[in-house]
Design goal:
The structure is a single chain. A hairpin with a 5-residue loop joins strand 2 and strand 3. This protein has 7 helices and 6 strands. By secondary structure, it is α/β, with parallel strands linked by helices. A 3-stranded mixed β-sheet has the order 1-2-3.
Length: about 130
């Protein structure tokens, strides 16, 4: 789990978010509302699919961010995280401690730690075919 949380304002531009991702060498940012509360996630794929590829370069991050946040508590087993990713067909989960986001875990993190869990993450894809 990554615990260094990098945020972006919901009113930031796509360009500002892309620059922050590049500068911080990350592939996603947590999105905050006007009160500073984290409520969404924006990924590099969101930027490409929902802004660049559709030529919507003037949209605000709040318009393309993934919401609601999907996650689990830090005491959950890593296999539960893999199952949830597979069931929701997502690559990242936030880690909640109560109502606060304390980290992000990615499919890459899980596969790096336990390659055998890749099957749980990919489960949704097998069910579709």
């Amino acid at each position: 789990m990554k615990t260094s949380l990098i945020t972006v304002s919901e009113d930031a531009s796509v360009y500002e978010a892309a620059i922050k991702m590049k500068d911080k060498d990350v592939s996603c940012l947590l999105v905050t509302d006007a009160k500073g509360k984290i409520y969404a996630l924006v990924t590099d794929a969101d930027l490409v699919r929902n802004a660049l590829a559709t030529k919507k370069l003037s949209v605000k991050i709040k318009e393309i961010a993934s919401k609601p946040l999907i996650g689990l508590e830090p005491d959950k087993d890593i296999s539960e995280a893999a199952k949830l990713m597979g069931a929701k067909n997502i690559k990242r989960l936030v880690v909640f401690k109560g109502n606060n986001v304390v980290g992000i875990i990615s499919a890459r993190d899980i596969v790096r730690i336990s390659p055998s869990l890749y099957d749980l993450i990919a489960e949704k894809e097998r069910v579709k075919t």
